[in-house]
Amino acid sequence: MTKLASASINTFGPSPKAGFESPSEQLITLTYGQLVQAVQEAIQPLQDEIAQLREEIDQDRRETASLHAKLASLEKDRDVLSDNQLIQLRLIHELKDKSNGPTDTEKERVERIEKLCSDAPNHEISLSELRGRLGIDKAVLSRLLKRINGDKFYLRKSTLDKRIRYLCLRPEVR
């Protein structure tokens, strides 16, 4: 019994049978066609994976090209928008420059106001009379009075009614 136990322990299990061969020691006979078919079947999953990876690479390249085209389009749009903003800023500055100077209509009205004031008795005319003769409202008259030469004219209130103001020609200019 001890011999059987020691033999089992030494061989790690019951000893192999006499006619048994391990799979690595077996001789297999295949024809060339069978060998080619076996190799084809073995590498087919790898070929499928390679084909799938190539398709993914092609798709990634197409997406990259599409994104590059979209980026170029967006950059072009941005350039156009920045050019438009620059043009708008220039136009705004031109309009501001024009608005600071008197227009032709304002120049004509200022000349008429100066002539009316020069021709009036005592060289003074009330603002309400000016508005009536020129046919303009208070806001327009207020803008025109800012354009009038302060060295030649001045404004004064009536001594009788503080609500009435007069445009007067300075005595040194008369």
SSE inventory with pairings:
Layout: H1 2-11, H2 32-100, H3 104-119, E1 124-126, H4 127-134, H5 138-147, E2 153-157, E3 165-169
Antiparallel strand pairs: 1-3, 2-3
Domains, number: 2
Q: Order of strands in the sheet with the most strands?
A: 1-3-2
β content, as a range?
5-15%
At the fourth level of CATH, the homologous superfamily of the largest domain is: Winged helix-like DNA-binding domain superfamily/Winged helix DNA-binding domain
Mean pLDDT: 84
SS field, number of helical segments: 5
Secondary-structure content class? mainly alpha
Q: Approximately how much helix is present in the residues?
A: 55-70%
Provide the gyration radius in Å.
Answer: 53 Å
CATH topology of the largest domain: Arc Repressor Mutant, subunit A
End-to-end gap: 152 Å
CATH architecture of the largest domain: Orthogonal Bundle
Number of DSSP strand runs: 3
CATH class of the largest domain: Mainly Alpha
Sum up the overall morphology in one term.
Answer: rod-shaped
Low-confidence stretches: none
Explain what the structure shows.
- The protein is mainly α.
- It folds into two domains: 42-100; 104-169, Winged helix-like DNA-binding domain superfamily/Winged helix DNA-binding domain (Arc Repressor Mutant, subunit A).
- Helix content is 65%, strand content 7%.
- It contains five helices and three strands, in the order αααβααββ.
- It has helices spanning 2-11, 32-100, 104-119, 127-134, 138-147, and strands at residues 124-126, 153-157, 165-169.
- It has a three-stranded antiparallel beta sheet with strand order 1-3-2.
- A hairpin with a 7-residue loop joins strand 2 (153-157) and strand 3 (165-169).
- It is rod-shaped, with a radius of gyration of 53 Å.
